[in-house]
Design a protein that fits this description.
Length: 466
């Protein structure tokens, strides 16, 4: 037991540091976004004024303004569709051109499926980018999955007059890009920079049927895909760039072990990575929309619970999918406060049903998450291990050394809404509640129960006779 407790304490320290870093990063990002927004608005005004002045002086009408956006991590795909040189004026050429239209329509469908933005088609070259216009951490995986599906579609195309017309070489590179955004009703993007140039050059050195990725992309996808070293390509001012060929999905993550279609384990691993994007988005919403009187049910509490369910979940032996569902439930468990204080658990489940289908969660997973959230409604009455874990994580502070200062923030929150009377009344209520409370999981009982009993005695000493 001693060794297990030492391991848990080490995990606690690691997760607490992660918790603190996340809060610090969230605040820094918030300040940076505000500062950048102000600078961006000022620059846009200055550019518009300068543009208008030049056009008016030149006697021309102003055109639609272009905007510049920076993306620190995008994944660019260049695909060259070989086959045009074999076309002639015979009947089969007409059939081949019809088939090419079919190919391009299918490629557009695949990009849409993986939320990849098509930049343009230049003759027989197809260009797209993941992580644009919506930034996300999964774009390297999204683009490689799309490339595999595009390649598979070409390989399965019917032959025309006994011939396969279309072959494809692909180059994929991840890095920063500059996007030129234009249009009002229909927004179009064009991207520039070394990342674009490198992806284009990689496509040029790759063989037909090969999906070539740079070492930067490889490092971000290697846990999901089978990759083989391909060689090096010289890049001006950057030295030699290592390249890899993607041969398919890793066996353990592929349906029937064939390496072509993802299985449930792939989906779970992907969602655990994608959770970072979802968490950043929801925390930003909470930061902006939670009422000012929420001194306890704030962003810090949400981060605490997300961290704690992961810790307890590990210790209780849960698998990756169970950890994912718990972390997602913890992220949303107090999000309903953006709608109303009372019945916030129910409102949180409605937000789950609104948001999670867009992140690939199944209906079964969504219902499970909603049940976990509703279990946090007081008094806690969990029905399974997942609900027990979130109940323990939600009231983890009862057995922590900072219990009293944390509980004081809850008193302040309730008092400002006229839901509690004097501080003395609050302490009496706390003693009654904590005395009747029990942690459900063995992990929480081991880590928090002893200290919780000490807190009861400390609070009793604060109570005065009326």
């Amino acid at each position: 037991m001693g060794q297990k407790q030492d391991e848990l304490l080490k995990r606690i320290q690691k997760l607490v540091r992660k918790n603190q870093n996340l809060l610090s990063m969230n605040e820094m990002l918030r300040m940076a976004v505000n500062e950048l927004s102000e600078k961006n608005e000022m620059m846009q005004l200055q550019l518009q004024e300068a543009h208008m002045e030049v056009k008016v002086k030149g006697g021309e009408l102003p055109k639609v303004q272009e905007r510049v956006k920076k993306y620190n991590m995008a994944t660019v795909l260049f695909a060259y569709i070989a086959g045009f040189k074999h076309l002639t004026d015979d009947v089969s050429s007409e059939a081949a051109m019809d088939q090419l239209d079919e190919v391009l329509i299918e490629f557009d469908r695949v990009l849409k499926k993986y939320k990849i933005h098509k930049i343009k088609t230049i003759g027989d070259t197809y260009m797209a980018a993941g992580g644009i216009p919506v930034k996300n951490i999964t774009n390297p995986i999204d683009v490689v999955m799309a490339a595999l599906e595009m390649n598979m579609f070409l390989n399965q195309l019917r032959r025309i007059d006994g011939r396969s017309y279309w072959k494809m070489s692909l180059g994929i590179h991840t890095g920063p890009v500059t996007a030129i955004v234009s249009g009002k009703r229909k927004i179009t993007y064009d991207i520039k920079g070394d990342t674009v140039n490198i992806a284009h050059r990689m496509q040029g050195v790759g063989d037909n049927g090969k999906i070539l990725v740079s070492v930067m992309t490889y490092e971000l996808i290697k846990e999901f895909f089978i990759c083989e070293y391909y060689g090096k390509m010289p890049v001006k001012y950057k030295g030699d760039l290592e390249m890899f060929v993607v041969n398919g999905i890793r066996t353990e993550f592929s349906l029937s072990g064939k390496g072509t279609l993802p299985n449930a384990l792939f989906s779970t691993k992907f969602k655990l990575l994608q959770f970072n994007d979802l968490q950043e988005l929801i925390l930003d919403i909470l930061e902006k929309e939670l009422p000012a009187y929420l001194y306890y049910h704030n962003v810090k509490h949400t981060v605490d619970v997300v961290t704690e369910v992961e810790l307890i979940g590990w210790a209780e032996g849960l698998n990756d999918e169970e950890i994912l569902l718990l972390k997602t439930a913890a992220l949303f468990h107090d999000a309903g406060h953006t709608v109303a204080y009372d019945e916030h658990e129910y409102h949180g489940t409605q937000l789950v049903k609104e948001w999670l289908p867009g992140y690939g969660y199944t209906q079964e997973q969504i219902e499970k998450i909603c049940g976990i959230i509703m279990a946090t409604k007081l008094p806690p009455q969990p029905k399974d291990i997942h609900q027990e874990i979130i109940c323990d994580a939600d009231l983890d502070y009862l057995g922590r050394s900072d219990m009293i200062p944390v509980s004081n923030t809850l008193y302040k929150e309730l008092h400002e809404q006229n839901k509690i009377g004097s501080f003395n009344d609050w302490n009496k209520l706390q003693v009654k509640f904590i005395t009747g409370h029990t942690y459900f999981t063995k992990t929480a009982q081991s880590l928090r129960e002893v200290n919780k009993q000490k807190q009861i005695e400390r609070i009793r000493h604060l109570i005065t006779d009326d």
